[in-house]
Amino acid sequence: MRYDAVIIGAGHNGLVAAAYLARAGRRVLVLERLGHVGGLAISTRAFPGVEARLSRYSYLVSLLPGKIVKDLGLTVELRRRRYASYTPVGDTGLLVDNEDQERTAASFTEVTGGTADYRAWRDFYAMTAEVATTLAPTLLEPLPAERDLRAAVGERAWRELFEQPIGQTVAHRFADDTVRGVVLTDALIGTFADPDTDLLANRCFLYHVIGDGTGEWNVPVGGMGAVTTALAGAARSAGADILVNADVIGLDPDTGEVTYRDGDGAEHTVTGEKVLANVPPAVLDRLLGNTAAIPEGAQLKVNMVLSRLPRLKDASVDPKAAFSGTFHINESREQLAAAYAQAARGEIPGLPPAEVYCHSLTDRSILGQEGETMTLFGLHMPARLFRQDPEGARRAALRATFASVDQVLAEPLADCLLRAPDGSLCVEAKSPVDLEREAGLPGGHIFHRDLGWPYGQGWGVETGYPRLLLCGAGARRGGGVSGIPGHNAAMAVLG
Question: What CATH number is attached to the domain comprising 314?
């Protein structure tokens, strides 16, 4: 059977591409290996007898452009979080309140002992906001040339964000070690790099501050699954066919023939005038019979349901404020550097840096009972730490991470965990090796491969084969829940 486009993978980017192409009158088939659509952008009841719906893998939305939401008529609500972050420091903490600059300034003074770093903070993020405003619209257009993007963002921003390692920029801008660390975490999410020397950290930082022109990380109401459910609905209503339990096992990039195995084990072959690959580049290489270079993810994802929020050492801050934004744990610049050095030696960091979010404080609809959801994202946990003994290393990393969390709280986090009806604690951890095994992500890399600069040629989706395009996170300007690669692949098809 022939189609105008065959899309491999029904993750959110594949669904975006399918919806755009089907709305343009193209005949589209989407093949999904798993038994559900959405890929890793799903909501899950992770614990037996507990109704809370966790965004199990992907959890916040920043990069999804409003234009895609409008174009596809998506009924998706993304809620802004009032509090950007809270960082415990001894018996006090640094609170960044998006709606109260005076309170934020007072918190900076309390933690840093002066006003200089708060002024530097406002100046630095005013610069990143200008870059976001400039760069975000280009993400849905053909890639700008490097020289054109440089001229658009200006020499100062180009030097500090594109040319100079972000760790050096931050060290020059800020004096306080805690403040430096809070800024640098955006350069290290899912990325194993030394921000003092490696421009990969700069690329990660850019993608974390430019989302939809604001850089805000918002909570999807109903959980991440609500986003992909809306996308699947848009694709199907436009006429796209979506098959689940359809595992692609063969691909001829010259003829467009795609072979897949259905849930009963029968093999089928379809032909696409264009084939869009919403899979990691390493998976695509295997399908093409090429040697696959395996990337390396670097995070520990921990999902929890709490019976109540833990108490803070800082009595001046309501835990609901502290945990509704990004709650930073042992992420000062020195602590980040120490953890990186240990992980680079093949050791689980002794004091793992991490951050947590309680989405249920912003969206109560994901709860089926009292309590709160908590998502923890641990940094500097590369796949190499989990290769030899995945189960044992995961347990060790989880123990170290809980000890790290407990160091900044007024009580042990374990005392606040909800128990499921069967008596088990509502906590699960996912290492990069778990993501590789369970979700098919080579190296457990959440961005499919290391992020690239947002400039170049073409749409950033092209491969060496005219019929074959990338439409997943591994495309240029991929990574995160954005739909940008799906949109751009569709635009490349439509000309």
Answer: 3.90.660
Question: Which residues are 43's β-sheet partners?
Answer: 55
Residues 449-491 have pLDDT tens digits of 999 999 999 999 999 999 999 999 999 999 889 999 999 999 9
Distance CA 178, CA 166 (A): 16
pLDDT at position 70 is 97
pLDDT of residue 397: 98
What is the pTM assigned to this prediction?
0.96
Which DSSP helix (H) or strand (E) runs through 107?
helix 101-112
Residues 278, 282, 286, 290: is their CA dihedral positive or negative? positive
Indicate whether 236 and 333 sit together in one domain: no
Q: Is 128 helix (H, G, I), strand (E, B) or coil?
A: helix
Q: Are strands 298-306 and 78-79 parallel, antiparallel or unpaired?
A: unpaired
Give residue-wise pLDDT tens across range 358-368. 999 999 999 98
Give the pLDDT score at 212: 87
At residue 34, the 3 state secondary structure works out as coil
Using CA atoms, how far residue 460 sits from 286, 469, 487, in Å, is 21, 9, 11
Which residues of the chain register pLDDT less than 50? Answer: none
Domain with 278 in it: what CATH number?
A: 3.50.50.60
- In this predicted structure, what is the pLDDT of residue 85? 97
Do 253 and 378 sit in the same domain of this protein? no
What pLDDT is recorded for position 59?
83
Into how many domains does the chain fold? 3
Is the residue at 214 inside a domain? no
Q: From 422, 430, 438, select the one nearest 48 (Cα to Cα).
A: 422
Same domain, 433 and 340: yes
pLDDT at 116: 98
Beta strand residue intervals within 414-454, DSSP E: 427-430
Q: Which domain holds residue 282?
A: 2-43+222-294+447-494
Q: Are residues 325 and 412 in the same domain?
A: yes
Same domain? For 39 and 101 the reply is no
> What confidence score (pLDDT) does residue 238 get?
98
| CA–CA dist 455, 459 (Å, integer) | 10
Question: What is the reported pLDDT for 361?
Answer: 95
pLDDT of residue 293: 86
Considering 152, 175, 208, which residue would you say is the last residue of a domain?
Answer: 208
**Structure confidence at residue 479 (pLDDT):** 87
Alpha-carbon distances of 443 from 312, 394, 431, rounded to whole Å: 36, 15, 10
Q: Say whether both 147 and 236 belong to one domain.
A: no
CA distance 182 to 49: 37
290 and 300 belong to one structural domain: no
In a domain, 354, yes or no: yes
Could you give the count of Cα atoms lying within 13 Å of 273 in the half-sphere of its Cβ?
Answer: 10
Is residue 215 a part of any domain in this protein? no
* Beta bridge partner(s), residue 327: 86, 356
In this structure, the answer to whether residues 108 and 239 fall within a common structural domain is no
Helix axes 116-135 and 200-209, enclosed angle (nearest 10) = 80
Q: How wide is the angle at C-alpha 201 spanned by C-alphas 198 and 202, nearest 5°?
A: 100
Residue 57 lies in a domain: no
